[in-house]
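chain below, 156 aa
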Amino acid sequence: MTTLLQGALAGAAAGAAGTTALNTVGYLDMVVRARPASSTPEVTVEKLSEAVHVQVPGDRKERENRTAGLGPLTGIAAGVGMGVALGVARAAGWRPSTAVTYVVAGVGALIGTNGPMTVLKVTDPRTWALKDWIADIVPHAAYAAVTVAVVEGLDP
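prediction:
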């Protein structure tokens, strides 16, 4: 049990580092292309709140502010959660090549973030232009690279 807990903690650290890399690349993209921040995380929180019949508390302005905080937290949770999954899998003996781990981390993070948005009909990746795919994949590739480097580096 201690080994799995150690794997989870190493994975959480790796996922947090990867999430920082993803956010950094995303923010740099906003600077370079002068693009606005995406509203999809907040819309996802609103749709999820409706789907589970649990309203974000407060008056209209307070709900907007809370939703603005909850949106990015869902991305952090997905990134750290993917890292935990990788860390636990490694602690349980899963030892694929670095390339396979990289693909699993990147695809897992893409699904973890875009999956709920797609299911809730906030976005439809089938309609994305190439530039939209690139803008989404590049930060997730940075996430995968950093997460895998850290989770492998923390492996005893």
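The mean pLDDT is 95. The two ends are 16 Å apart (CA to CA).
thats it, cya
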